[in-house]
Design brief:
By secondary structure, this protein is an alpha/beta fold. The chain has 2 domains: about 170 residues, Rossmann fold (3-Layer(aba) Sandwich); about 150 residues, Up-down Bundle (Dehydroquinate synthase-like, alpha domain). The protein has a 7-stranded mixed beta sheet with strand order 1-2-9-6-5-3-4, with helices on both faces. A 3-stranded antiparallel beta sheet has the order 10-11-14. α3 links the parallel β5 and β6. It is globular, with a radius of gyration of 20 Å.
Amino acid sequence: MQPKTSAQTNGQPDKVIRYSPPEIGKTVSVSFYLHQPHSIVSPTLEKKKSALLVVDGSLDKAKTDYVVFLLKKQLDNIHILNIGYGPKNLARVKQIWTSMLKVHPDVAVALGGGTTCDLVGFASSCYHRGLDCILFPTTLLSMVDACIGGKTGIDFGGVKNSIGQVHYAVESHCIFPFLDSLNQEELISGFSEVIKAAMLFDENLLQSIEKLEGSFNLGQDWFSVVSRGAELKAHFSEQPFSQRSKLLYGHNIGHGLETLSSIHRRHGDCVAVGMSYELAIGVVSGLVKREVWERQNKILKKFKLPTQLPANASFAKMKEKMRKYKLYKDDAYLFVIPERPGVIIEDGSGYYCRLSEKQLDTTFKEVNKLLI
């Protein structure tokens, strides 16, 4: 994949998001490129001698060759590890650690989607008690979610992301044309995280989303909306942890659905369903006006995102999964619910709406009536 002719031949991104998480005491960056650059400006690589480039095995070789082309502008010693395609498990982290011990890199670079970014981030957090890492996300979901916020980890014991650490990538480079090989379903699934950010934090962004065409493309309008969604998440990664919990809208029911069975479900699809049900819980509980929920679901449906649980999904089994998630505390299920775009309901203890088991069961019956 050779870089196309563009205005960005000097390596300057179209948008740079810089944020400073208080727990690390330094600034990290996320750069968005509307076109493929001929080079990138990486302050991190200027100080390094060798890199381990970990590649998602499902990617075409052209993307790997292109990123090597970019890295070699600043770094000669590059070792490539193709980790194949598979789950976020300990076996794949061991692959990365084994290579790290063999080649002794002073920076790790991830090329792939959210799974690859998480694996490399987690492996880097443990190697020599913390190795710098740089991310080149290749999916829309990883550009707006996995590469921002420092959350890394693996699935263990049947629980999603149950083992992990917070380890921020020092740089992320989001090259929009990387998305051209993805199908519409995969792209739009990742877009649910942008809709979520708009519902939580930005009425203007939600209006921009409403003006978009229903099919994703690589044009300026979509680029602006996607990069703004990433910017909102980065902004809240600078806040205290109690504030960051706002980002979990749609993730309680979404997590329960995603981990319900061995059937693979896209994370973004599950978040969309979670948003539909969790905002409906707000409606049934008298916290949210029905028209707010209807507006959100109209947007989800416009982009062909799911808004209802699969017919074969057992809510009782979903609750078992939800009880193992971080949004279950003190015998209560916790939900982040926007009263309207940009305004989140607070109960004085961390931006949560709390429901007991009995309350959730009763509420869920009413929610199902609303969704018919």
